[in-house]
Amino acid sequence: MNKEKEEISAIHPAVAPLCYLLGKWKGEGEGGYSTINSFRYGEQLHFSHPAPGKPVIAYSHNTWKLDSGLPMHSESGYWRPKHDGSVEVVIAQSTGLAEVLMGTHSAEDIVIKRQSQVVANASKVREISRVYEMVNGELHYVVQMATNLTALQPHLKAVLKKLP
């Protein structure tokens, strides 16, 4: 058996519907909020399947200022897809904020929707929503956020291309 076939067969069945995410993605995004100025950024996401016998995807996300290349934000965590189309996600951000999200994934529509169940160690953020969608081979995502003073509203959006 060649290496590529071994890697495909090593993917846990619960991870298989999301295997298109595996690898590195890079692109640009834009952010803003009713309480801050708009901004643009570069970013890279990395999805891996570190334990083929387990239904888990490791996730890391790094952003930087486009003009200087200086780091802006990073987060990492784990996605646990389930056979019923649900997905559990745990994310730790470099700011100390932690998220526990529940959502759904659809292999047919190639869309992943997640809503926060817990936002911990956040003095102002009370809710986060994340939607990832494949469009013409590109990974699009939108993050919405609610604070103690604002309702759920757009915060970040980006378009990423898969790296070879």
TrEMBL record:
Enumerate the catalysed reactions.
peroxynitrite = nitrate
The coiled-coil regions, if any, are none
Q: Which CDD domains match?
A: lipocalin_heme-bd-THAP4-like
Gene3D superfamilies per UniProt:
2.40.128.20
Q: Write down the Pfam families for this protein, in alphabetical order.
A: THAP4_heme-bd
- What InterPro entries does the record point to? Calycin, Nitrobindin, THAP4-like_heme-bd
Q: Which SUPFAM superfamilies does this chain map to?
A: Lipocalins
THAP4-like heme-binding domain location is 15-162
Q: What is this protein called?
A: THAP4-like heme-binding domain-containing protein
Q: Which organism is it from?
A: Hibiscus sabdariffa
Q: What lineage is on file?
A: Eukaryota, Viridiplantae, Streptophyta, Embryophyta, Tracheophyta
